Amino acid sequence: MAERVILETGKTFSEFSLLTNYTSKECTLQKISLNTRLGNLKLSLPFLSAAMTSVTGYEMALALGKEGGLGVLPARLSIDEQVSIIEKIKGYEMGFVEDPITVRETATIDEVVRLVEKHGHSKVPIADRNNVFVGLFSFDKYLDANATPGDPVTTIMITPEELPCTNNSNISLEEAKKELKGNSYLVVLDELGRLVKIAFQKDIDNISVAAAISTHKGWKNRVKSCIKAGADMIVIDTSDAYNEFTSEVIKEFKKINDSIPICAGNVITYEGAKYLMENGADLIKIGMSSGSICTTQREKATGRAPMTALLEAAKAREEYHQETGKYVSLIIDGGVSAAGDMIIALTVADAVMMGGYFNHFYEAEGEKLDESMQVTNHEPDIKHIATWGEGSARARNLDRYGHVARKTFFAEGEEGTVENWGRLKPKLKQDIRKIKAALSNTGCMDLEQFRDKAIIELMSTYTQQIIGSTHNMQVKE
Ligand code: IMP
Predict the structure, then answer these.
(1) For residue range 324-377, what is the model confidence (pLDDT) as tens digits?
(2) Does 354 sit in the ligand 1 pocket, CB within 6 Å?
């Protein structure tokens, strides 16, 4: 008979509801912070994009890094590929958006917001019918303003007087940089005041980026090269990390480097988490079989409901903290696909890694497909984005799943498509607001308080039907 048979069912995020708590006047969305600390790395957003070849490459790591999160470059990339992406991100300073999509001054705020959600550029220039520049719509300003959706966009635009503009339409990036004078963008007009392009500068000092490694041969060279290129964290990416290979890599890693943190994973049990903590991991990644593209449970009947796995790891974190004074951050990985999941996960985890969620955006690595599933690079035509798991026949990441030979490999992941959600920034900003609103409902100013104070309650299947969706009504299309 099995050593232990657990008859209580495992739980996932959407089975829980967050209870409210007293909220002071101070606790407004503008003041709430989503900063998190992963080992000695500080992020202003507790999100990591998965180390999946369909998700994270230069574009995703840059877009998420700019928002304060962390892209994790897949171990399936070559060392040279990881290094060149890290170097590019660290060297990223500014670029031009040529031919930006504009709106007319007669457009309503609502129309522009829909455009931002579709195409993703959070700054939309407003121009008259001769393309003469009138002002700039900023999605960030809109979120902070108490705007009426039907009002003209000009009521909340940033006016040309408030913006750095230049009439030198042939300006170079170097010259544009000088003209910025502390701003993060420069509007380039021609001599008649018509819009030519916009120059954007990165608005945070340092964009963080991480690199995944396996526990197989060659990992040391990869670590050394990635650290030299400027990686902010190394992630041991294996589907099951409760083993001697992983603890050896952690120990060896600590001999090579003591400046950046090492994340080890994945584990799903109290014992697995405790083992990695005791062997020196700075961070631990939790989850197995819960990934959106994952077929591990189907193939090997192995894995665990993600919230249960996280709660078990949190017990180990608590105990280890009491014993040693060392706080080991936890990253939940797999099965988090919407703001509600993120909120429940963050009552326990320090950060959330997502694959499927980020795969929906233009910045993901998967091919962009039109209505007829043909590859297209024309943004308005993109309806779907290709996705595949690291254990799928396409990625064949043998190292992650401990397969020794291509011949005997069996897939633990699917290949398919997801719906295109446009550019990352607007949707991410909306989800960030939902998370901040939940923190505000519980009276928490930051994620540390949230982890200490949050109260979550399990719902029955019946309750999930009643409070989890609308009922006894037809939703207007
Ligand atoms: P998602 O956010 O639900 O899509 O889960 C993403 C996570 O799924 C990744 O970070 C990996 O831990 C895991 N994963 C990626 N590819 C595979 C696969 O092919 N099989 C099983 N799990 C996978």
Answers:
(1) 999 999 999 999 999 999 999 999 999 999 999 999 999 999 999 999 999 998
(2) yes
Nearest atom in ligand 1 to the alpha carbon of residue 287 is 12
Q: 413 CB less than 6 Å from ligand 1? A: yes
Q: How far is the CA of 416 from the centre of ligand 1 (A)?
A: 13
Tell me, using a 6 A CB cutoff, whether residue 286 lines ligand 1. Answer: no
CA of 164 to the centre of ligand 1 (A): 44
CA of 63 to the centre of ligand 1 (A): 20
**Could you tell me the distance, in angstroms and rounded to a whole number, from the CA of residue 48 to the centre of ligand 1?**
13
- Of 237, 290, 293, the residue with max ligand 1 atoms within 8 A of its CB, to mutate for a pocket test, comes to 293
Q: Tell me: the pLDDT tens digits for 356-370? A: 999 999 999 999 999
Nearest atom in ligand 1 to 296's CA: 21
> pTM of this prediction?
0.86
Check residues 367 and 408 and name the one with the higher pLDDT.
Answer: 367
pLDDT, mean of residues 445-456: 98
- Say yes or no: CB of residue 294 within 6 Å of ligand 1: yes
The CA 214 to ligand 1 mean position distance, Å, reads 15
pLDDT band at 204 (very low <50, low <70, confident <90, very high): low
HEC string of the chain? CCCCCCCCCCCCHHHEEECCCCCCCCCCCCCCCCCEEECCEEECCCEEECCCCCCCCHHHHHHHHHCCCEEEECCCCCHHHHHHHHHHHHHCCEEEEECCCCEECCCEHHHHHHHHHHHCCCEEEEECCCCEEEEEEEHHHHHHCCCCCCCEHHHCCECHHHCCEECCCCCCHHHHHHHCCCCCEEEEECCCCEEEEEEEECCCCCCCEEEEECCCCCHHHHHHHHHHHCCCEEEEECCCCCCHHHHHHHHHHHHHCCCCCEEEEEECCHHHHHHHHHCCCCEEEECECCCCCECHHHHHCCCECHHHHHHHHHHHHHHHHHHHCCCCEEEEECCCCCHHHHHHHCCCCCEEEECHHHHCCCCCCCCEECCCCCECCCHHHCCEEEEECCCCCCCCCHHHHCCCCCCCCCCCECEEEEECCCCHHHHHHHHHHHHHHHHHHCCCCCHHHHHHHCCEEECCHHHHHHHCCCCCCCCCC
Reported confidence tier of residue 205, pLDDT bands at 50, 70, 90: low
